[in-house]
Design goal:
The protein is mainly alpha-helical. It contains two helices and no strands.
């Protein structure tokens, strides 16, 4: 994938599906599932942001 944000979204959404599955089976409550979804979104967005910044820095040093 060319976009790090798209890659992070794919991984995060697949993990969120597991959270929803646990909620539907009664192993997690709705508030716990919501908190888990927010945590997943923030985590993967921050990973994508940091990875993109590091990738930009590496490409800047290669140009020198």
């Amino acid at each position: 994938m060319k976009s790090v944000y798209k890659a992070a979204a794919v991984v995060g959404l697949s993990q969120f599906i597991l959270v929803i599955d646990l909620m539907m089976r009664g192993e997690r409550g709705p508030l716990t599932a919501l908190a888990g979804g927010v945590l997943l979104a923030v985590t993967w967005a921050s990973i994508a942001f940091i990875y993109r910044k590091l990738l930009d820095r590496i490409s800047d040093t290669d140009a020198l």
